[in-house]
Automatic annotation (TrEMBL):
Biological classification of the source: Bacteria, Pseudomonadati, Bacteroidota, Flavobacteriia, Flavobacteriales
A Pfam family recorded for this sequence: DUF2851
Protein name: DUF2851 family protein
């Protein structure tokens, strides 16, 4: 038995219309279960319950055992002073408020049907390796319900990303351009170097990028040096010597701290080498003075592709690392890489900026993402193997949210699809 099933039973009104009795033999009539609470405090707010002949409006707390009340120290927490009903699977001890009055307790185990317990066990069973708990039933869920839930999950994913972005804005005194640069740096670092690029970008005052963006080689030297790519290299190429000399000058001018680490090259395809990604990032900011303002104005997918139509400097066209010649290529951002920049940086930032201005761009952003191709990753492979591949980027983003925040955490009863399945089978 797990507590999430008790939440399901209470929140889904499985007890409504039943003749219920408290552990003190008082009749209980549930009028409204209340509003689920996702934060600290009681599990349901503003429930309406009739206990005996007395009508109560207040909060409901749910536990597996009554004694969990004391195990969680609710007796000394003022947030629980307004609990009117304690709903438990097993009542093993009487519970009292701080004023000494006893809290009414409803023991569920004598009211829950065998069919519901079996349905829950079948949904949550993990006796064999599988991708998601409901994989054998996933295909039978009504398509309208699935599509509606995926749209909600995509907005939920944007909301989660917006919390992170607003935190960055608070730390940077609402420097939207600077936050965009930090997020882009993280994405240009790709999976291997993303966190390193992000941390280094946070340490760099964006005003330095503004002041050097007029000359792309100067900006490239600033970024390559700050990202640890000009140290510890035995190279006599004139371009490398020029960049290093320029960075030493900029480091003195801007009073930059020495960089004691460097990004990874091992395991990366040459096109993802940090040297190439930094050069591309420098050329993006050399191409467009106010990148943030420009991206916020764009609406059409093709315009975003044009905004990110950038390559590298002449040196990098036949180099991947300093001092080693390679076959010449323009090394422009690929369409698939631009798609990731749009999905992971531009769309969440547009979502946040619209909220900041008091606007609602949800439908416009959904329309944009619906035009974009699905991502390729292990999660998409998993849904594809079940016969339900994502049709577009909205579905892939939503399914990432579904898998990471619900399926992999066994939060089936907080998922609309899991709730539907359990309701259907009981």
């Amino acid at each position: 038995m797990k507590e999430d099933l008790l939440h399901f039973i209470w929140g889904q009104k499985k007890l409504h219309g039943r003749q219920l009795t408290s552990t003190a033999n008082e009749a209980i009539h549930i009028k409204a279960p209340g509003v689920p609470n996702q934060y600290a405090g009681p599990d349901f707010f503003n429930a309406s319950v009739e206990i005996g002949s007395q009508a109560w409006v207040g909060n409901v707390e749910i536990h597996l055992k009554s004694s969990d009340w004391y195990a969680h120290h609710h007796e000394i927490d003022p947030n629980y002073d307004n609990v009117i009903l304690h709903v438990v699977w097993e009542d093993d001890i009487s519970i009292f408020r701080k004023d000494g009055s006893q809290i009414c307790t409803l023991e569920l185990k004598k009211y829950v049907s065998e069919a519901l317990l079996n349905g829950y066990q079948n949904l949550m069973e993990n006796t064999r390796p599988k991708f998601i708990n409901c994989e054998k039933d996933f295909g039978g869920i009504d398509a309208f319900l699935v599509d509606n839930w995926l749209h909600r999950l995509y907005i939920e994913r944007l909301e989660q990303k917006s919390n992170f972005i607003f935190k960055l804005l608070e730390e940077s005194n609402n420097d939207w351009e600077g936050v965009l640069f930090t997020l882009l740096a993280k994405n240009f670092g790709t999976k291997v170097n993303g966190e390193y690029f992000f941390q280094q970008a946070q340490k760099l005052d964006f005003s330095m990028v503004r002041k050097t963006s007029d000359e792309v080689e100067q900006l490239e030297s600033l970024l390559l040096g700050h990202f640890g790519l000009l140290e510890g290299i035995d190279c006599m190429d004139q371009y490398y010597i020029q960049l290093k000399r320029e960075y030493q000058y900029l480091a003195r001018k801007f009073e930059l701290s020495p960089v004691l680490s460097r990004p990874e090259f091992y395991g990366l395809r040459p096109s993802n080498f940090p040297t190439i990604r930094v050069s591309q990032l420098a050329h993006l900011y050399a191409k467009q003075t106010n990148v943030f303002a420009h991206l916020m104005e764009l609406e059409q997918l093709e315009d975003f592709y044009q905004a990110f139509d950038i390559g590298v400097g002449s040196y990098w066209k036949n180099h991947f690392t300093f001092g080693k010649l390679s076959k010449e290529s323009p090394k422009k951002l690929t369409k698939s890489f631009i798609d990731l920049l749009i999905l992971n940086t531009v769309v969440p930032l547009k979502f946040c900026y619209a909220k900041h201005l008091g606007k609602d761009l949800n439908e416009d952003l959904i329309a944009l993402v619906l035009q974009m191709p699905t991502e390729k990753n292990a999660i998409m492979d998993g849904f594809g193997n079940l016969g339900y591949p994502a049709k577009n980027a909205l579905e892939s983003q939503a399914k990432i949210q579904l898998y990471t925040q619900y399926c992999s955490k066994n939060k089936c009863l907080q998922c609309a699809l899991g709730v539907h399945l359990l309701n259907r089978n009981t």
